[in-house]
Amino acid sequence: MFRCSANCCEDSQASMQQVHQCIERCHAPLAQAQALVTTELEKFQDRLARCTMHCNDKAKDSIDAGSKELQVKRQLESCVTKCVDDHMHLIPTMTKKMKESLLSIGK
User: Fold this and answer.
1) Which among 25, 41, 55, 88 is most buried, taking Cβ atoms within 10 Å?
2) Is the pLDDT of residue 2 over 90?
3) pLDDT tens figures, 68-107
4) How far is CA 52 from CA 25, 39, 68, 81, 82, in A?
5) What angle do CA 86, 95, 29 make, to 5 degrees?
6) How many domains does the chain have?
């Protein structure tokens, strides 16, 4: 990207607008890659957050039903731990998907 941008600036025949457009074209793949990674990570975080919110809801329901605080705390910890464990298993697939998508940007 930086070499590409530098090459744009070396064209002495190009207008300022042409140089700017050239640099924008050079930056486009990086911007696409950043957007792709950001989107995938946001999806992952949202899924994990939904899972932990479900755990919180279950804990609140248990408290409202009269369960003991220590029991609810253990239930909440167990539920959140399961969320994390389940989502840890998604990381390799997410990483593979991002790598494949990033490779297609470079082509």
Assistant:
1) 55
2) no
3) 999 999 999 999 999 999 999 999 999 999 999 999 986 6
4) 41, 20, 20, 9, 9
5) 145
6) 1
